[in-house]
């Protein structure tokens, strides 16, 4: 990774200081507008009192007859319930000027708010009805319930309010001069607009990310933002400015439900973001259980009145907070690097979230800032969460880059990164030497080792080589990993790679390489097995690269192959050596181009049911019509692809063509099984299996039969694991090229095979007549006893067809029945044979 240059770090600091100045000035200018209420700025005195109507049936005249209890507004025992609160505020003007004042009732969620202005004799001067149940109120009266009134010099008046709501009854009452009330509204608009703008922009940004990346975590975050807007819009009143009035009334009626939706979306987002959704752990079970609790609570809040639903919500917050704390801290312990923003994002939310109930119970004074504390906390949380998502995306990119350029087991640079480093050196006109070190006989014993044992072997060899490489300055660095320099790459099974300076002479180079070779352990104990190790080393100078990294790698591979053929421990590339191997690599390059340009051809052979002669499937083969060498067979193509690293590339072409063929046949209403023959080595590649799992979403894989060989040893867990993954994707497997080895036949069902195909050696051998009939009949009987079907291939004459029929084979194919054809001819052929096409499941 490139380090941040000092100039960019300096610019970043300047920008941060500028942003801090903007935010600081904004907070300073907003301050706390509630300090400008009339009793704090003028010689006007307020005296508040209250009376609670438990039955909520008292009229205005009834209330005037009651004895009100003197109390500060904040000290009134506000509670959830059906009772009505009558609050009186006596206002005394001791100045010599008439004042135009505004009484602000700071709770836009009230169902009923009726306000009267009374003179000294309790006669009504002004009367106003507010609240959600009152129609035809303008948007400002809905968002800011208020009453404007005039107070004469040296005069007295009273403001009497009746408050009734199914939710939070607590209603702070502030009296302002008109200008100061406008400041309250202005600062409210400012902070609301800031919150809405940031929330909408971040939601749109995440929607774009979801469209491009298709990661459901971004949808969960958008849901969280929208739920927060609905909830905060109801509580603070700005929802009147962003939703239709009818929708805002509905949201305020079900404000507890919107609180539940915030909690549900937050937990789903946390589960997806912290990668718990795809793993089976106790914490994942806890997350699912908490989600069930929250969903049940949300459903209950739809039918319960708000004063009953609110306590249910507070109770449900207990398991939510416990779950969040556990999943966050568990992830921090395992991977703090990319989870840190998520952790920090919860801090302002938790702190500000605790302030709301503290204000509600009177522990904290109700002010403009404490009223908007949760909104500010959510705003900071949304910003930090957006940073967390960006950091997660960046981490995923780094992780994807690392996986693409490093070996999964040893974490060493792979051939991709090694080639990239070579390209850099060539562009810098640096003379260097590529060096491959291959463990002798690695390919012979590695198939019988478990993946962990293989990983241990590679890591132990790597650990033995790293110290000697670090002290030699002639060995070039391939990659910087933090403070560590990596000088060793791992290209493929048993092959390590170095880059060396070209400055040393041949004798010094040989001595240096022999020293490196001597540090490879002569024997290692892996899983209780003593392995004897030796190695071959091949080098090639960059002067032979012709400024092409691929050519230089090809020549180094060529030299390594020649070193193994000659049985020498160390070999340097010579310009005149290796014509056959060079031809192989040229052929590999041509194969790559042929695959890219779709020059390989597919051919198809119909397969028939032996008894009813119905066409049940089609066998697929591929070939390469080469201009110079003629048609290259499927077996030769597969071997070349495996030897030269084109395996996955070939597989992707083959299965893409196969899927296209299936879709075309389906469009023609032709539903028959397709089969193809592949080697286990061709299938056994995680990159290919992963690609295939993404491609089969809309493909009926049950119509595909893959014929391959039986794993040689039952301990070959990796090969069996690949077969199991492909079986889980819906593919069927058949045992290919069987010619009488009953041990292989007995193991076939355990490996997931459902059909056995009589091999070429069996059908093309000298055996014929009665002897062939007896052997084939015995083999078929064993196969049937193992619940395997039998397919006979190369049925080219009537005599063999009669034997296949007599031995009760299930299926057969060959020139006698139908010739091999290309796809266009096959499509026409199948259309003419529709009446003879059978369904395997019905046979």
Automatic annotation (TrEMBL):
SUPFAM superfamilies hit by this protein: EAL domain-like
Pfam families reported in the protein's UniProt record: 7TMR-DISM_7TM, 7TMR-DISMED2, EAL
Membrane keyword on record: yes
InterPro entries associated with the record: 7TMR_DISM_rcpt_extracell_dom1 (IPR011623), 7TMR_DISM_rcpt_extracell_dom2 (IPR011622), Cyclic-di-GMP_PDE-like (IPR050706), EAL_dom (IPR001633), EAL_sf (IPR035919), Rev_trsase/Diguanyl_cyclase (IPR043128)
Coiled-coil residue windows: none
Domain EAL as annotated: residue spans: 584-834
Membrane spanning residue stretches: 189-211, 218-242, 254-274, 286-304, 310-329, 341-363
Keywords from the UniProt entry: Membrane, Transmembrane, Transmembrane helix
Domain of life: Bacteria
CDD domains: EAL
PANTHER family xref list: CYCLIC DI-GMP PHOSPHODIESTERASE PDEF, SIGNALING PROTEIN YKOW
Name of the featured protein: EAL domain-containing protein
Species in which this protein is naturally found: Pseudoalteromonas spongiae
